[in-house]
Amino acid sequence: MATLADIGVAAAINILSAFAFLLAFAILRLQPINDRVYFPKWYLKGVRSSPTHSGAFVQKFVNLEWRSYLRFLGWMPAALKMPEPELIDHAGLDSAVYLRIYLIGFWAHLVMAYVFSFWTCYVLLKEYGIIASMRLHFLASEKRRPDQFTVLVRNVPPDPDESISELVEHFFLVNHRDHYLTHQVVYNANKLAKLVEEKKNMQNWLDYYQLKYDRNPSKRPTRKTGFLGLCGKKVDAIEFYTSEIERLSKEEATEREKVKKNPKSVMPVAFVSFRTRWGAAVCAQTQQTRNPTLWLTKWAPEPRDVYWKNLPIPFVSLTVRRLIIAVAFFFLTFFFMIPIAFVQSLANIEGIEKAVPFLKHIIEVHIIKSFIQGFLPGIALKIFLIFLPTILMLMSKFEGFISLSALERRSASKYYLFLLVNVFLGSIIAGTAFEQLDTFIHQSATEIPKTIGVSIPMKATFFITYIMVDGWAGIAGEILRLKPLIIYHLKNFFLVKTEKDREEAMDPGSVDFGSSEPQIQLYFLLGLVYAVVTPFLLPFIIIFFGLAYVVFRHQIINVYNQEYESGAAFWPDVHGRIITALIISQLLLLGLLSTKHASQSTPLLIALPILTIWFHRFCKNRYEPAFVIYPLQEAMMKDTVEQAREPNLDLKAYLLNAYIHPVFKDGEDDDNFSIGEEQEYDNTLVPTKRQSRRNTPAHSKCDGSSSPPQL
């Protein structure tokens, strides 16, 4: 078990690391050459341009204004200065609500036992109400977006007489005759998208070698044709990539023609748009047929949020896919206990000395011993977790979710469960197993909670080192943006030829909800558990929340460019995980008290988990509908206001090409979508190609969205 001296060494290392990162950021952000790395969001909004300096050439790269270095910490008050309404308008509701999670971690660790639980529930209740109100206000006041009028329809049943497009049009003209406007069927363009991406990569390499040759015309660049250019025949690089691009261009043209003409490329999925938000809300939130497995409707993600690769996945296979991933995730989670146990063994000097006795004299050196016990376990665990978010995201993609926001929420759920089982419970149990192996194996199942209860205070020092490594130094490293900084300057030196190239070289990034939010929840869990058991840990957590809030506020204002906007759809998950952490802390407190000769007092705590679960059910019933259902009253009000303000709005032109696959949006395909004249569908008849059915009401009009783009 680490001593106070060991914790002091770890604190010194991490504080110095965090200070070094923050100091480096404060200096690097002032340099003109790094302006696009640390303020890309303002460039993307078009309100900031490259710094221009008259005078010496060096001033184009280095800031020689010494007064600006005196204000090197000015980014902190600047990050806190922007009001929340302006922040929502600037970065979106997702980002603003994400920041509020950090604010809760100031106030969720102040009191203990009942008072602490009631205070946490009060904060959650207040935040749920505020955020639900913010969401409804955001939806009511935000600008017009295609997803407000559009519904995603899946599992369209096959028909031998009509194509998918004709079937969709016919169904909605009949069943939503007064509100249906247009639709766009979904094409399986995954292979085409892969070819386009591969061609883009080849073009980047060609640009690199062409620029290299332009700088040194005396020598033609070369590369090898084998794996990753490391082996094989040496050829002229420019000629090689030119021929590869020509080959891919031919394959791309062939695949485009195949997608256009092959009926099998059309999936039983469509984006259906309506004349009003009210009409879309009715369709999205109701069952369409007596068979609940057909014509499944849900709100369409906004166009930026669509994950196109998963749309062609057959709906019937989704259940099987999710079952496979559930099994795989189970084994991933529990087999990961092995490296967790190894990491925990590093925190036990005696265990290391038994395993490698010849290193005993070296390990017993005070500074080395403090480093091993105070710093190494935390950094080792951090390294083990580096690739985990990527693995979990791949698993979520395999499950078939069709929006980036849903993928991130699903990945976040897996990551939180993984951290709960492995980092929290795994660290406690594995550490106990190493230190009390015989008793842990041979004791009865009823004694395990007591063993865990005893272990919780013993592992406080490990979690302190983990918080300092992952929380303090990690957050400071986030604002430094070392990886984007290096990549930007490499691209700027080797690839950039125009201002457009320089803009594409920027990597503003975004809030990685799938990995960062579960880590926040781990700190909530640690704070709630140790608030009663070992309050000494709380200052470390509060420092993390304070530093993280300022850093991420700065990043959201100046750096991040969110890929999508979900209207804080993730908040119910956040609330549920905090409730879970609160219940776990209450149950572990029961286990701990049962080992401290205080068993008579434990019945008094049994009511806490029951009351907490009741509170969660209340919040779920009271506020969660605001995140799931769009009220028809709100939809009608917004439609009425918009029709009064813009009576001549051509909504069909606005929606017509909103949900076309990105590979078709090259500037030429869009022009081939014709916009037909608006028609009123009253009592006219719609001819159908079905031989066994009579004509049904409403006139069928095939518009540009019903056919594939003319490629």
From TrEMBL:
**In this protein, which residues make up the domain named CSC1/OSCA1-like 7TM region?**
321-593
Enumerate the subcellular locations listed in this protein's record, separating them with semicolons: Membrane
TM spans, by residue?
7-28, 101-125, 323-347, 367-394, 415-434, 522-552
What sequence ranges are listed for the domain CSC1/OSCA1-like N-terminal transmembrane? 7-106
Q: Which Pfam families does the annotation name?
A: PHM7_cyt, RSN1_7TM, RSN1_TM
> Which keywords has UniProt assigned to this entry?
Ion channel, Ion transport, Membrane, Transmembrane, Transmembrane helix, Transport
Q: What is its main location?
A: membrane
The membrane topology of this protein is: Multi-pass membrane protein
Q: Is this entry keyworded Transmembrane helix?
A: yes
- What family does the database annotate? Belongs to the CSC1 (TC 1.A.17) family.
**Can you say what this protein is called?**
Calcium permeable stress-gated cation channel 1 isoform X2
